[in-house]
């Protein structure tokens, strides 16, 4: 949804006035984690886990525009839903974090904002399918997203008021690794070192630009996504892929261990507690999902995608009737219920980090 147009330079004043009111931009009371009124301006960077609508909305759907078409955003599988530009059946990670901080949904997409206007809730620069380095689709990289962010700071679209209590999410989910042979261990390790180093440098760059606190996603257990469990009829995770995830997360933790005001979101554990718990274990949250490795929206073709149509507009996929019972929405992305279950596990340490004086 596009915001109402504002004149250049008015954004900071408008935000200051809003901060004096006990309601958030969505018109609901915004209470911080400590129970009092608190405001966080959120800035999102990364890929489809954090994208709230930056990819172009086109009439012709593709793997990179499907989030604007049925069945994305329909929540319960009915045609009455309205696609939101998110890679899920409804809300995604930034929306769940925003709700934990007192808002209704995550910040709007950078590409869908009026020039010289920054929403009081912040902005998402994340682009579905992107990575740290340039992927084959030549999407906006993490560094280029931060370039866009820096440009808005320099022209004062993003003011000091936005940065005063700012929180950034850096969500890199593995697109840099999608085109490398996982059996080539030496090249994989070398790439992991490069990717995690680049993430670290971009996190530090965000801090230099004035972001107060930064949340950084660990890599989730990629080997348990339907994309890689489909060959075993959605029964077994790919251990080689998950070994690469462990290496990525280990290097990332080492790189960031001395960086102040950064909190790593342990997606690896939170996902695994639900979709791949240790033998004899399993969280209560896992029990709510009847289907943990099977996607709600499944393509007929292993190389296809959810929402794909044939040349004569025939569906090339199936959609479940009860998304809330599925952890995964499509071949790689969680359902809203999946994201809620993941972030519920991470909520307490995240809020403790955000409310800690820096």
TrEMBL record:
SUPFAM superfamilies with a match to the protein in the record: SGNH hydrolase
Domain of life: Eukaryota
InterPro entries: GDSL, SGNH_hydro_sf
Keyword Hydrolase: yes
Keywords of the record: Hydrolase, Lipid metabolism
Pfam families: Lipase_GDSL
Organism whose genome encodes this protein: Aegilops tauschii (Tausch's goatgrass)
Protein name, per record: GDSL esterase/lipase
Family assignment from sequence similarity: Belongs to the 'GDSL' lipolytic enzyme family.
GO MF terms held by the record: hydrolase activity, acting on ester bonds
GO BP term, pick one: lipid metabolic process
